[in-house]
Amino acid sequence: MPDGRRSDEPTEKCGVVGVSLDGRDASRPLYYALYALQHRGQESAGIVTHDGFQQHSHVEMGLVGDAFEAGDLETLKGSTGIGHVRYPTAGSVNACCAQPFSVSFKSGSLGLSHNGNLVNTDELREELAASGHAFTSDGDTEVIAHDLARNLLEADLIRAVKRTMNRIHGSYSLTIAHDDTVLGVRDPQGNRPLCIGELDDGYILASESAAIDVLDGELVRDVRPGELVVLEDDGAGFDSYQLVERENTAHCFFEHVYFARPDSRIDGSLVYDVRRELGRKLWAESGVESDVVLPVPDSGRAFASGYAEAAQENGADVSFAEGLMKNRYVGRTFIMPTQDARERAVRLKLNPIRDVVEGKTVTVIDDSIVRGTTSTQLVELLRDVGAEKVHMRIGAPPIVSPCYMGIDMATREELMAAGRETDAICEEIDADSLAYLSIDAVAEALDSTRADLCLGCVTGEYPYDIEGESTDRDVIRPDIGEASGDPGIAGSDD
Questions:
Q1: Is 109 helix (H, G, I), strand (E, B) or coil?
Q2: Domains, the chain, ordered by start
């Protein structure tokens, strides 16, 4: 993680969006869509549009509401464009790595927004630099942009995208603006989400369906793993090309556990429903007698609701209560420079309601434990206001390994569950009991199999070829020195 900042929670890298409209400027719809995706990144925000003649760009550090002033949107002319919100896990925390990344070359202008993380960035950068490409940032997005720009000099748009897909290795959902044409691409394992929506006067691509909802649009479907979607310039429809196919997917289960908005649909499932089902399974696997069930706000709320409901259906005399209040105006705990400051920030951020927990046995439901700072402080806080017993139940398996796919998930040394038994973790956080959800329960809730999920952070085995790490499937890192070829481009009109 850049700048030595560490979160006690997993942190998503980015959100992407792209629109093509019929005669209406795209800037304001893109702006609203980025607001809906603000939870996916808070470091920078940007929009690139094209008016049929030239590209327009506005990219700034900060939240969406801070990055754009009223006049900025007026300068972003054109009915097509892409947008991006960023939280950096690859690349520096500065304006040169903010997105969309723009580049101009002989065949036109190119804008690119990326959610995910490549694992072969360095070798691609070295190969491109050796052939004369100059880089202005240390992020992987610029590497993708330069590779695509080079391929566009030698091939048509569809074949150029396929050549780049055959050279990059890792996790990516991309929205791309090639002059006034907007494209969406999802990596062959479908690790990061991307969906298509229909608006009254056009189409939209977005990381989550919540960005479609805010524009009063209708979700069409998810972009398929390995698929390229090309929006028509007049907003009349889109073309689909299945460029790469794999036997199995590697969907990130943490999208449903933590990252995505509860009102978003990802890969066919409403996130809220999945979280409630995970809570129900948590009761089935490790339910414990208690007086009250408390969610850790905000992401633990749906888990706790499902857990309490399942408990009550099975005869447990337990109530669901909002016993922890969140101060929404306190900055994230990871920006605090010392451990003492981080611990103090937890107390400022979460405050228990004494009347709800005093004299009672409490079950606290959280989505995950990363470093354990929040869990330790929560248990202490609840005991300070009179809780008789505190049980912790976690709606995900133990996080034992870092994420390389675009999520800030700490190093093994910082992960509380790495190399440790649950009983030892329970003792450290001073809970009366602790239980995690099983991997099989997560797969069942997602109506999936282990083979179609990325489980690297909870198994230590990854769906990509990462140096020094084990894989959970046959994976071959691309040889970037080989010509990719262009066979088998399947196209359809949707």
A1: strand
A2: 2-250+479-493 (3.60.20.10), 271-448 (3.40.50.2020)
